[in-house]
Structures are given as structure tokens and as C-alpha cells.
Amino acid sequence: MIQIYHNSRCGKSRNCLLELQHSKKDFEIINYLINPPSFDELSSIIEKLNINPIDLVRKKEQIWIDQYKDQKMSDQEIITAMITHPILIERPIVIKDNKAIIARDLEKLEGFI
Looking at the annotation, which residues are catalytic? Predict the structure, then answer.
């Protein structure tokens, strides 16, 4: 089953969701702002994305700028910051099997699903 970590206030996330709806494939919507992933879940997503935790952070968010920018942080501390403040998680994330992408580019999504 395909999963989308979705933020309905984000235009890129809404466009991704529309593309998934048009694909006619079964998928699950996860509103990660209301139901943030656990530490283990987010660690697994990062592994599926094949990126470092810092690469999933929305660094222009005010929370990041005010509380974390310019701090030396371990991967575990970065993941904890994203769990504490899920708005920091880049979106949309689409997961299929053991792989995931940050689906800001719809062409990337089409090739993935």
C-alpha cells in the first residue's frame, strides 16, 4: 500500500495527493501534523528515503531558525526535533514498499508510483 505523509495546508502536498487520487492506486493518507511519526517510524522513513536526517528538515521554518539553526546536533537530536515539531518535516513524503521519496516534483512521483 502506498502512503503519503500529507499536510493539507501545503500546495505541493495537495498536488501530490491529487496525483495519487488520479492514479487510481490504493493509498493511505497520514496527516503527520496531527499524528506525528514515532522516533522509530521517522528513522525508518529516513532510511527508506536514503538521506540524512538533516536533509528532511524544513530549514526555513521559524521554529528551526529560532531553536535549532547553527546548533551542532546529532542525527538522533534532529529526528527528535522533527517529532517534537512535525512542521519541520519536509513534505510530501510518499512511501511504497521499502522505498520513499519527497514528492515535491510530480514527475518524480509519476515514475515512483
Answer: 10
Phi and psi, residue 40, nearest 5°: -65, -40
Q: How many CA atoms lie within 13 A of 105 on its CB side?
A: 5
Contact 1, 29 (CB under 8 A): no
CB 2 within 8 A of CB 94: yes
Q: 50-79: per-residue pLDDT in tens?
A: 999 999 999 999 999 999 999 999 999 999
Reply yes or no on whether the pLDDT at 111 is more than 90: no
User: Residue range 78-84: average pLDDT?
Assistant: 98
Decide: residue 74, CB within 10 A, 0-12 exposed, 13-18 middle, 19+ buried.
exposed
